[in-house]
Amino acid sequence: MKVVYKPGNAYEEINCFDFREYEHGIVLHNEEGYNIGYVPHEILSHIEPHEGEKLAFEDGQPPEPYGDDDEDDEDDDE
User: Fold this and answer.
1) 41, 30 contact by CB (below 8 A)
2) How many alpha carbons fall within 13 Å on the CB side of residue 7?
3) DSSP secondary structure letter of residue 62
4) How would you class 39 by CB atoms within 10 Å of its CB: exposed for 0-12, middle for 13-18, buried for 19 or more?
5) What is the DSSP secondary structure assignment for residue 34, as one 8-state letter?
6) The whole model's pTM is what?
7) N or C: which end of the chain has fewer CB within 10 A?
C-alpha cells in the first residue's frame, strides 16, 4: 500500500506492506514486519492500496466506518 502524507508544502509517499494505527499516528511495516516509518495523524493524507490489493465488496461499496452515524446531527444545531 502507499501512505500519502503532507509534512510541509508538498505531498510525500511511502510504500509499505502493512501498518498499525496508534493514538498519535501510524507505524509502517515492510514484508518482514520491520518498522520502516512513522506518520503522525496530523500530516496523514490518505492510504491507497496498490493494484492487486484492492478488495471487492459484495454490494460494491465498503461498509460505513463505525461511529459515523448521521442520526444525531440534528442535535448539533442546538
Assistant:
1) no
2) 7
3) P
4) buried
5) -
6) 0.65
7) C
Among all chains, which residue has been given the C-alpha cell 509517499?
13
**Band (24; pLDDT cuts 50, 70, 90):** very high
Residue 35's closest CA among 16, 48, 54? 16
Q: For residues 70 and 42, what is the distance between their CA atoms, to the nearest angstrom? A: 24
- Are the beta carbons of 2 and 13 closer than 8 angstroms? yes
What is the pLDDT averaged over residues 2-11? 94
**How is residue 65 written as a grid cell?**
466506518
Of all residues in the chain, the percent with pLDDT exceeding 90 is 56
Is 12 strand, coil or helix?
A: strand
3-state DSSP assignment of residue 48: strand
